[in-house]
Amino acid sequence: MEKQLKRSEVPEALKWDLTLLYESDEAMEQALAKTQQKASELAKTAGHFASDGQTFLRNLNENKAIDEELEREFVYGMLRRDSDTTDSTAVTLYGQVVNAATTIEAELAFIQPELTAIDDADFAKLMQSEPGLAEYQYEMTKLRRQKKHVLSKAEETLLGHLNKSLDSAEEIYNTLNDADLKFGKVHDEKGQLVELTHGNRSQFNESQNRSVRKEAVLAYEKPYHELRNTFAQTLNSFIGTENALARIRHYPSARAAALGANNIPESVYDTLVATVNQYLDLVYRWYELKKRVLGLDKMYKYDVNVPLAGEDMLKTTFEQGKQLTWDALQVMGPEYLKGLKSEFEHRWIDARLKISVNALVAIK
Predict the structure, then answer these.
(1) Whole-number pLDDT of residue 267
(2) I need a surface site. Which of 223, 247, 272, 352 has the fewest CB within 10 A?
């Protein structure tokens, strides 16, 4: 019987090297403390964040530095947790970063309402008064476009404090999906029992042996079915939160809020859905063809992903996969390839299947 390796059993060459971010957990925690201190200092500029061009540029640069540092710390904490979501130390570390981010967001919540409160003409003069502000022109335009959806300082601060709670439905789902669900063992094409995971289920779904893929699909869906009420309530909580936030920020709907941040009209979404529905007949024709080629009387969910190429379907090792990626991306040019080469050589990719790893097997 094959068994998925524990994190400690995986060769170092197949795991991402988080020391490229920080040498240790302690080093990240020290950096996080410094970032929090910077945020506390920047919070003292409330009321005069953009009193003149030079002050505005200095404060924007400091805010940008805080964002970049916090992102680096957040990524480290997230990847530590995602390496093994049953590792209590890693989960605690991630929690520390999330708590710090929530605190910082609340401390600096005054920035957006302070900037959107400035008259359009005065703000235009402010941006013209300091050449260095040109770097932030797009960001400021995007912010001021959302002016009517930015709340008062007190309200933005309150939402900042609630950020972690508002994200709880998504965190609960991630914990259930990535750490708590167990799919059991299924038989592979050789009749051996193999532990089914998020990462390896695709190879069973694509098996030419119908009984193998049927067993795997049913095993994968079983824990979701057993916890369907919990998942349904989690989704309901998420939807309720998104709808409430949309109303608070004066959007007509949660969909409008989600699209509005990037200045995307709701008509784009409607057009996408309408276009997909318009050509659904092509999907039905494809499945009908697939059913006929596979010689099936009825087609079930476990038949959807099996390739028509049969035993000739592409299977690669990690090294072969890297080479295929390298060859395919030659068209991107030397600068892009230089970055890709660094990612390959310095272990930016976590390639090995692990127990309770996050659903993505190889993440950069």
Answers:
(1) 96
(2) 272
